[in-house]
Amino acid sequence: MELRILFSILWRRRRLMGLVLLATFIPITLGTALVPTSYDSTARVFIRKSQALSSLLSVVGMQTLGSSQSISETDMANYLALAEMRPVYEKVIEEENITRERIRGKIFKYLPFLKPPLRLLGVDVDSSVVKMTAEDLVDFGITSYVFPRPYVEFEQYEDSNVVDFIAYSTDREQAMRIVNGVARVFLAEEVVRVRAEYANIRKTLNERLKTVRDEYVASFRKVAEYNEAEKVLDLSSEISKYVDTSYELKKNIVNAELGVARIKQSISRLESRLKNMPAMMKTAEDIKVSDVAQSLKNNLKDYYLQRAEMFGKYTSEHPAVIDVERKIDEAKKLIAEEAQKEFFQETVSVDPVYTDIRTKLSSLYSEMAGYEGQQYGYQKIYDKLMAEALKLSSKSADFSQLKTGASVMQDIYQSLLKYMHQVDVAEAADISNMVVAEPGIVEEEDDADHMHPSVSINAMLGIALGVLFGITFGLLAEYADNTVASRADARKEGEDDPVVAEIPVSTGSTLVSSTPVGSPFREAFRNLRRGLNAVAGDGRAVAVLSCGKSSGKSLVAANLAAIWAMEGKRVLLVDANPHAPTIHDMLGLPMGDGLGACLAGQTTLEKAVLPTPVENLFALTADRDPALQERYMETDKAKTLFAEMKTRYDMVIVDTPSATSHLDGMVAAALSGSALLVAGVGATPKDELAVLRHRLGGEWNVGKTAVALNNLPVPTVKEYAQAARVFVTRWIKSLRKPVAAG
Predict the structure, then answer these.
(1) CB atoms within 10 A of CB 528
(2) Where residue 702 sits, what CATH number does that domain have?
(3) How far is CA 611 from CA 314, 542, 560, 654, in A?
């Protein structure tokens, strides 16, 4: 239903929408056709991430080897920012000698008579061509739409590692030269920037390399001098052996400590679970104080001490080492078995959860005993080794320190030399990262994809905008319009529908007597007659009123009288509007003595009434002097005359003047006993119609009123369907008629 209302609103505003559509479409299309055509040319620059550079950066720790090979969003944003730098475009402007025609020069070309007066005012009217600046080449102003000039833009191509440079110019070859020049200079500037970055890195490395080389040479000189002076070269291997052995022992001690801590944490978690088990089961504390378990732990420590004494002397395949390892495994196994016995000393549980926890705890106790044994044994040997190391000469320790420092400086020096070589290779790889993947070309002159502006595209845009603006203005006009547009506008809140008929705009004759049978216009007045019969009942007079002009009141009155006359009733049509009489013109009658003359007694009703071309329809025209009707309309003579008209005729239709400017309409409605208010669609204000209905029912005591909507712009959907059905039926019948024999 809402969609139907929307369509009816748009149809009512179709003229406004059409004007807005034309006002939008024509300027856009004509403007596009008049503006000089620009052509574009595109060059694509591919920015790839070098595999060689990524490998080198991973070696020096600046990037992981498996990192993405695509350009990041930040890097791409930096490249796009560098593409807008002034030096790039200044070089292209110099190389290609890019100029533009000034706007005043283009204006003087079409309006040359403006030159002399402007020259007198000091305006430079002769220099019409100027050299472009970098800002001109990248900034696209609003005037560039009307007065095209060379212009360059750039963008990332569909989230890829490609940057598109697009140049526009009225000269296709110039557009190609500009875009290729911009791409070439952009790459050259990028090479300069990359070389400058690597030059700074190389400078820093050289400075550091010189310092490290001096320290490296000095450290080895000290080692040689110290060795020659103190004769400690034969202790180097022994010191190295002590250092290596102590390092391995300390590492084993730390690992054992970590193992104990880890196992204690696991035991703690399992013991917390044991607390939730039945009270009959033994706790973990009972296991820890077992005498047998404690004895086994002491044996295990002794075995680990023996194993630690063999550390550094024998390999793991030596028989003595194998024997000690076997004893250690047996001791761990006995500790685990002892732990399980403690759990089942009093009560045996069949709970599988408890059994699993008991097994895990037994294993953990065994492992912890092993780690504690390792701590004990390795710590004993480590302390012994440290005591022996302290007995070595302090000179040997100093010599080892000097040698270690020299070795460190040697590693640093070699790393710096390696980095220097990698920087050279990385620079070459980084410079080759950017290439022109697709240079710009001279596009075809008639290629619409590279022409700007495009007449076809802008024409479609003009239509789309015109439709959008048209609908918008149409809805705004409907919102701001206070005139009657539908049945709902004529109805008061909480009231039954007062509209008895909807009369469409007449496309042919103004009288229904001349319209075809079944036409929407004729059927509308038949509905009006039927509606008035229901409203007026036995009333024999109806006054036709309206609010203001352009509502079609007189036409409705004439056709209402004609439709009643065509039914066989004697109908009198009274023109009570001497200010703007129209009835005599509609019926083709002369204008003589009318209602005012009858009221003044200058003539009788029988003499004043004229026959019309419509059978059973008679007319009482208006007077030439409006003062006669105004003088007698509210007198008893008017009541007598209206009573006589009702007696002589079956139906009296009174056409009245505008009710908003003349009182005679109200008086005629009161004398008639019923009133028909004609509301012109798009012409009658809603508030004035409501006031008129209120006054008729209250002040003038006209109890029988109805409303007719006139000049509906379009028939309803139902009427369209009915008309289409009638047309199709008649067409099919015509096909079935037999063809006459020749």
Answers:
(1) 24
(2) 3.40.50.300
(3) 147, 20, 16, 16
Residues 65, 52: Cα–Cα separation, whole Å:
11
The pair of structure tokens assigned to 470 is: 């048209």
Q: Cα–Cα distance between 115 and 639 in angstroms, integer?
A: 82
- 415 falls within a domain: no
DSSP conformational letter for 580: S
Q: What is the chain's length?
A: 742
Three-class SS of residue 543? strand
Comparing C-alpha atoms, which of 577, 553, 545, 495 is closest to residue 695?
545
Does residue 520 have a cis peptide bond before it, meaning omega lies within 30 degrees of 0? no
Residues 360 and 475 in one domain: no
Quick one: tokens of 233?
């070269």
pLDDT value at 185 more than 90: no
Q: Which residue has the tokens 């000189």?
A: 221
Structural domain total, the chain: 4
Decide: residue 276, CB within 10 A, 0-12 exposed, 13-18 middle, 19+ buried.
exposed
Higher local confidence (pLDDT), 572 or 246: 572
The rounded percent of the chain whose pLDDT value lies above 90 is 18
pLDDT digits (tens, 9 = 90+) for 377-408: 777 777 777 776 666 556 666 776 777 777 88
**pLDDT score of 638:** 93
Top mean pLDDT of 103-107, 320-324, 444-448, 478-482 is at 478-482
Same domain, yes or no, for 42 and 181?
yes
Domain enclosing residue 57, as ranges = 31-199+435-443
What single DSSP character describes residue 169?
Answer: E
pTM of the model: 0.49
Count other Cβ atoms within 10 Å, centred on residue 102: 17
| Beta strand spans in 111-194 (E) | 129-131, 151-156, 162-169
Looking at the structure, tell me whether residues 354 and 467 fall in a common domain: no
